[in-house]
């Protein structure tokens, strides 16, 4: 089946490459000419494990192509996905301009029936708005074609995006009205995945739109819940890892998303949590749990920065390990490093930073005083302190003896609770974690 995926970012490109791998004919569309040129040459503009191999194999098979012009992708296309960004707009409201441009362009240029699918994360009611815009344009064109609007939110995790796309926990589809064709096309599209037992669940478009925000807000809440307890653990002499272990072994709770640390970042949780609050407010509702989730997260980041500043000697040299918001990605959106590094520099310290894959993307976002180096040990050489911000295995497995002998000082700030405090102390390093002693 021929499909078009508009927006070739973390979601759109992975989806395009995976659908091509599953046998569909896919056109990836993006307004960014430089990005499309790279993609045509088989080079991925983003770091995502396994993606470049799929990109190359899709191009080789001829099933994956790229263009900057959506109208060129439309002939014979059965499904157009919007996977464009929906960043935080004014007052934390989701900025839907790109989604509407895509919907309008499809409506202006389509010459046959097709379906428009929102994979971008959009607030409840956006599908209806797209449908109205499309209907208006089609009626202006006096066109009889039909373009139902479907919601198909994306749940992939950066760093695991290829696996999550090919083997998702579930595929959620929201369809309203008499759209048997839309249902049939979505079933056909996902058949290579559902045939191995992965559930495809149908519901109304509104429910599907809310599932996405509700899932992210719930996961963020789990993180903030455990982070909320770190302060109590610190003042009472408890250990947050033991608390999380004791809680997580209860099957009703489960161990995932109970890792205390500096708080969540990334392109989704912070913006989706805030956007859900805006949506609630627009409906005259409040969501106190979601509000608290956001507040705890902001506080957690600030608390850790204060903790560091309180013990750092004046004019320290600090090694920062990890810049992206999590391992195995180069995504810098809402990364803790973007708050931590400016605060350290502002306080008069020198920062030497390293990230295995995010340095190019990070450089323009960091203060110009930040010194970027080529390895964790380069950063740690003669440093007064090391701050671990992203839990790459490379940092987890560092030789602590070598680290101690490379450093001038002895402070280790572990913003992800990666190390065993006792092991760190054994090397005569001073350990500062979150909610652990
Ligand atoms: N990144 C994630 O982990 C993730 C996970 C689930 C859902 N989402 C959601 O998926 C959507 C996309 O996120 P992303 O991280 O892939 O964003 P992204 O910023 O990485 O990619 C968006 C792409 O859309 C392109 N674009 C913008 N306007 C366009 C237009 N009018 N026509 C064609 N292309 C256009 C941009 O050039 C960019 O390449 C967002 O709504 C996001 O909330 C993201």
What CATH first level of the largest domain would be assigned? Alpha Beta
For CATH, the homologous superfamily of the largest domain is named as: NAD(P)-binding Rossmann-like Domain
Using only C-alpha atoms, the radius of gyration works out to 24 Å
Rounded mean pLDDT is 97
- Small ligands present: nicotinamide-adenine-dinucleotide
Strand line-up across the major sheet: 3-2-1-4-5-6
Helix content: 40-55%
Instruction: Report the strand count.
Output: 14
Tell me the domain tally.
2
Number of helices: 18
Estimate what percentage of residues fall within beta strands: 5-15%
User: Distance between termini?
Assistant: 57 Å
Assign an overall shape. globular
Largest sheet: 6 strands, parallel
Description:
This protein is of the alpha/beta class and 437 residues long. The chain folds into 2 domains: 2-203, NAD(P)-binding Rossmann-like Domain (Rossmann fold), CATH 3.40.50; 236-437, Rossmann fold (3-Layer(aba) Sandwich). Helix content is 46%, strand content 13%. The chain has 18 helices and 14 strands. It has helices at 10-21, 33-40, 51-61, 70-73, 97-109, 126-140, 161-166, 180-194, 205-236, 240-248, 269-282, 288-311, 337-346, 359-362, 376-380, 393-396, 400-406, 421-426, and strands spanning 2-6, 25-29, 64-67, 79-82, 115-118, 149-151, 171-174, 200-203, 317-321, 350-354, 371-372, 385-388, 411-414, 430-432. Strands 3-2-1-4-5-6 form a 6-stranded parallel beta sheet, sandwiched between helices. Strands 11-10-9-12-13-14 form a 6-stranded parallel beta sheet. Helix 5 (97-109) runs parallel beside helix 6 (126-140) and helix 9 crosses helix 11. It starts with a strand and ends in a 5-residue tail after the last strand. The model has no long low-confidence stretch (mean pLDDT 97). Nicotinamide-adenine-dinucleotide binds next to helix 1 and helix 5.
């Amino acid at each position: 089946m021929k499909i078009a995926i508009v927006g070739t970012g973390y979601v759109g490109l992975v989806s395009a490459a995976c659908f091509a791998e599953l046998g569909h004919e896919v056109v990836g569309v993006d307004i960014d000419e430089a990005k499309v040129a790279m993609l045509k040459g088989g080079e991925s503009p983003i770091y995502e494990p396994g993606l470049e191999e799929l990109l190359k194999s899709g191009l080789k098979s001829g099933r994956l192509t790229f263009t900057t012009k959506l109208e060129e992708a439309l002939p014979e296309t059965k499904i157009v996905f919007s996977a464009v960004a929906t960043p935080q707009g004014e007052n934390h409201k989701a900025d839907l301009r790109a989604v509407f441009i895509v919907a309008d362009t499809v409506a202006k240029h389509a010459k046959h029936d097709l379906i428009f699918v929102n994979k971008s994360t959009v607030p409840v009611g956006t599908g209806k708005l797209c449908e109205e815009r499309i209907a208006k344009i089609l009626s202006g064109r006096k066109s009889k074609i039909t373009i139902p609007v479907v919601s198909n939110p994306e749940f992939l995790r950066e760093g695991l995006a290829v696996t999550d796309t090919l083997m998702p926990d579930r595929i959620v589809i929201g369809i309203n009205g008499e759209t048997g064709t839309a249902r049939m096309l979505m079933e056909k599209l996902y058949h290579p995945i559902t045939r191995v037992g992965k559930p495809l669940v149908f519901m109304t478009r509104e429910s599907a739109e809310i599932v996405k925000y509700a899932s992210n807000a719930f996961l963020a809440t789990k993180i903030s819940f455990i982070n909320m307890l770190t302060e109590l653990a610190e003042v009472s002499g408890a250990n947050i890892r033991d608390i999380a272990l004791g809680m997580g072994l209860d099957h009703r709770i489960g161990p995932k998303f109970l890792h205390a640390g500096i708080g969540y970042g990334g392109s989704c949780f912070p913006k989706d949590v805030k956007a859900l609050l805006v949506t609630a407010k627009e409906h005259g509702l409040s969501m106190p749990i979601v509000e608290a989730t956001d507040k705890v997260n902001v506080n957690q980041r600030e608390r850790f920065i204060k903790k560091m500043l309180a013990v750092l000697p004046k004019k320290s040299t600090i090694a920062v390990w990890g810049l992206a918001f999590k391992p195995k990605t180069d995504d810098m959106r809402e990364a803790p490093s973007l708050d931590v590094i400016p605060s350290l520099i502002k306080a008069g310290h020198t920062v030497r930073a390293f990230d295995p894959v995010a340095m190019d993307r990070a450089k323009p976002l960091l203060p110009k005083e930040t010194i970027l180096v080529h390895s964790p040990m380069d950063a740690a050489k003669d440093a007064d302190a090391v701050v671990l911000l992203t839990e790459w295995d490379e940092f987890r497995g560092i030789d602590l003896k070598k680290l101690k002998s490379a450093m001038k000082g002895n402070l280790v700030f572990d913003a992800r609770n990666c190390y065993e405090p006792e092991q760190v102390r054994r090397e005569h390093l001073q350990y500062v974690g979150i909610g652990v002693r």
